[in-house]
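for the writeup, i need someone to sanity check this before i put it in the appendix. the sequnce is what the collaborator sent (i think, or maybe the updated version? ugh). structure was predicted straight from it, no edits. if anything looks off just tell me and ill rerun, i have time this weekend
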Amino acid sequence: MAHLEARKHISPDSGFPITLHPHFNDKIKNHNPPEPPREPITPPKDRALYADPEKKSLFSVAKRVDLTESVGTVLENVQLSQLTGDQLDELALLVNERGVVFFREQDLTTEKQVELFQHYGSREDHREILSYTPWKPYNVQPSGDFHADTSFEINPPSYSLLRMEEHPEVGGDTAWVSQYGLYDALSNAYKKFLDGLHAVHTSRLQYDTILDLWGAGPNRPPIDTHHPAVRTHPVTKLKALNVNPGFVTGFAELKKLESDKILDFLAYHIHSADDHYVRWKWAVGSVAMWDNRYLKQVLFTATYLCALRCTLHRVIPGTYKGLRRGIRTTVFGERPYLDPTSESRAERKLREDGENSAT
């Protein structure tokens, strides 16, 4: 890492590198992104809204195995490449309900994966080739915490799918945390407080780090976007926490010190959410499809290289041997919003249980 500008300036007092403000780094200051910021889009109607709520077509060909009570489901005895349009719609609904759905031993090719995912999105569809190498001590990483991919976009992602093509036998797991569950776990007073806030999502921190770490810049300028700290899911109509430490730097309505304290608490809250957390052990041919609107994702990886769409994942130490290489496809969704009349997952269950007992 000695090639990094931030590592070249050594303090005579401590013998350790001095932290430089990005504007003192010519590589960062002089970078001119080749593409403009993304324009807002109106995505097509979510395919999950076309699905049979009971998912009869999908479950006629797939066995459902829930991994935890809150988040994560495996579908067994099924090939994604063979699903019909109706079954793909029902899969989208299941992903919205369960957060992330896993598949093993899939026969998808890259071309078929891209074709399949065009079912879910607009012309913003794209593919990424992701390559991971084992973690090394003291690596400087772009992002070291939970995040939802590119949540700073005006239209953040809706669905993502990652298919693993190369993977070591041990290590490199991925974990997801449910933001339905994270919101439910808060006190009613704290929920009400967060309901009134807008989180400031930014790409600036990773923008600077990518330039210094890789020597090649992001394709688009940095962006700052205000999204509701609690959002309503457009399919399930449930409330979910919409704050992730990877990209959120504060809250628009609060002073900096107030924001910092809340972010500290939410970071603790996220990391202690064992009851709303699922961990997936990858193998070649494994696939995960997740709701990128409300799931915080962490890749148990190291250096992250991709087609620079500025999507980074938390780095967890691991000394596994061999490469991890996968193909990810993503589509972009609606601009986040909060419907004040929406309810949380726990509130809905309590209401439905009461209605059922009354009848």
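Confidence is low (pLDDT under 50) at residues 123-127, 131-144, 300-315. Residues 5-17+24-358 form a domain with the Double-stranded beta-helix fold (CATH 3.60.130.10).
thx in advance!!
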